[in-house]
Amino acid sequence: MKIFHSKQIPEIDAYTIKNEPVASIDLMERASLKLCEWLIERYHQEQSFKIFVGPGNNGGDGLALARLLSEANFQVEVYLVKITRHLSADCQMNLDRLKIQNSSSISEISSLVDLPIFSKGTIVIDALFGSGLSRPLDDLVKDIVKTINDADVEVISIDIPSGLFGEDNSSNDLNNCVHADYTLSFEFPKLSFLFPENAECVGIWETLPIGLHPAVIEEMESPYQLIDENYIRSLLKTRLRFSHKGTYGHGLLISGSYGKMGAAILASKACLRSGIGLLSTHIPRLGYDILQTAVPESMVSIDRSDIIFTEYPNLENFDAIGIGPGIDIKCNSIRALEELLEECDKPLVLDADALNIIGANQEMKKYLPKGTILTPHIKEFERLFGECKGPFDRNEKQRNFSKKQSVVMVLKGAFTAITDENGRCYFNPTGNPGMATAGSGDVLTGIILSLLAQGYSSLHAALVGVFIHGLAGDLAADEYGEDALIASDIISFLPQAWKRIKS
Ligand SMILES: NC(=O)C1=CN([C@@H]2O[C@H](COP(=O)(O)OP(=O)(O)OC[C@H]3O[C@@H](n4cnc5c(N)ncnc54)[C@H](OP(=O)(O)O)[C@@H]3O)[C@@H](O)[C@H]2O)[C@@H](O)CC1
Ligand SMILES: Nc1ncnc2c1ncn2[C@@H]1O[C@H](COP(=O)(O)OP(=O)(O)O)[C@@H](O)[C@H]1O
Ligand SMILES: [K+]
Fold it and tell me: I need a surface site. Which of 166, 172, 258, 363 has the fewest CB within 10 A?
């Protein structure tokens, strides 16, 4: 699903209005019917709604919803916030229709004293501002929003929490934006819903289809998209009847150090559970018995050091290389990584301490071979690129670096963002907070290495790897719950995840 900029939404509307064709007021009615259906499915008729309405089409949606909820016998009170005397045409028409219906109370708010008392159990519908927000909230609206946020009520925002911008909120104070429990967005989510910093405003978000014209959605460009299972399926390779282990590649995983052999075990197991033909795991000498016992399917390459990574085997023997989980950041490891980056002409994935080494030795960024995959979490990202002004700035930095260096970057977390050499950004929907546990990232590195060795392009290895990793985590959370989930459980559910996606 493409994610469009707020500025593109009016163009998509206009195209739909002209080419479906449908009157603008009827498109608003369609959107409001979807909202109404959503609410009717979830709430009983004794529930009362307080709808806060602004001057634009977001307010128009709120007014149409008020009429539809009244028709369905819900108790509705409408509060029209006096920001300007002029209402948008469709907002005005819906106000007139509501007045004619004459079954909901309509009050005007021109100062805080006009606000109602919010009794517990009330549901507030936020229809103040939507994608037409042009500046941060100030004065009266800001205070109304603060009062709503402080009240013990459930808040449902139409399209986007009022005050929040669809993209960049770096100069916005989130305390002045509505903090919704649910956000019901039309057709597509907004980019800002996918950033962790905005979660307190957005709450749980859902998209409601309103039949925008498919031709304009297809044609209009956007660098952002939210991937899904069907898209990932379209990228998968099939295993051939007459194939042998050589067909699926030989991977080299450089991982582990004294006290961190678990990282090597987790990444090796995940790699083997994701279809690779052969795996060699390069580890410091002391890890030999540990790895041979824990992962008998992997061959072992031994470092001359007992405790850290200081050298690597001949790269010619391998189809892909993964380096980083648990390698530590010692002097000799830095030198060995430098050499590897300069020499390596094989597909490469860098994680954890490999990224931290580069973060501490910025000149190494220049030596990243084209097509390399980097998998930082936010902290590792900031070690690489410095502090960011906010999530939008961070995303821009990620996209720009991918483009400039022709690398694939995987910024991990909820809605992991994957950027490619064209500056495109793909968000992943799978995964859950149970995966915020030690070793989850090592599992991802193993999966991606496996896919690279099997001949997937860097972008496809990252997209498929991140999706399947999250899916296995979701299946594990279904079985054990999020709290008890550990990284090994993600590996245990890789077979089910692969089966599901290959079926
Ligand atoms: N395809 C879809 O998705 C569909 C979308 N639909 C709905 O349309 C919504 C977008 O509607 P919209 O463009 O009329 O903008 P909206 O946000 O209601 O308000 C703009 C008004 O607010 C004003 N204003 C702005 N910022 C302000 C501030 N800080 N403080 C004070 N005032 C401020 C601004 O004034 P101006 O900037 O011009 O000075 C203008 O008057 C969208 O979110 C969805 O709900 C559906 O109906 C149909 C299909
Ligand atoms: N709340 C969450 N929702 C979805 N995925 C998550 C969440 N928290 C963590 N993850 C996933 O778990 C993994 C954690 O990786 P990382 O932080 O590197 O862990 P570690 O360093 O312990 O191995 C990432 O792939 C990340 O996307
Ligand atoms: K809103």
Answer: 363
Q: Which of 61, 33, 93 is nearest to 162 (CA)?
A: 61
157 and 53 within one domain: yes
CATH code, domain carrying 60: 3.40.50.10260
Distance from the CA of 302 to the center of ligand 2, in angstroms?
29
Local structure of residue 386 (DSSP, 8 states): -
> Whose C-alpha lies nearest to ligand 2, atom 27?
413
For ligand 1, residues with CB inside 6 Å are 9, 12-13, 27-28, 31, 54-61, 83, 88, 129-135, 137, 141, 158-159, 186, 210, 212
The tokens of 59 are what? 């307010």
Ligand 2 site, residue 259, Cβ cutoff 6 A = no
Name the DSSP letter for residue 8: G
Same domain assignment for residues 284 and 138:
no
Contact 123, 153 (CB under 8 A): yes
pLDDT tens readout for residues 39-76: 999 999 888 999 999 999 999 999 999 999 999 999 99
Check the annotation: does 49 bind a ligand. Answer: no
* pLDDT at position 84 over 90: no
Quick check: 372 and 407 in contact, CB under 8 A? yes
The letter for the amino acid at 403 is K
Domain that holds residue 279: 229-502
Q: How far apart are CA 158 and CA 141, in angstroms?
A: 16
The residue out of 193, 222, 251 marking a domain boundary is 222
On whether the CB atoms of residues 263 and 256 are closer than 8 A, the answer is yes
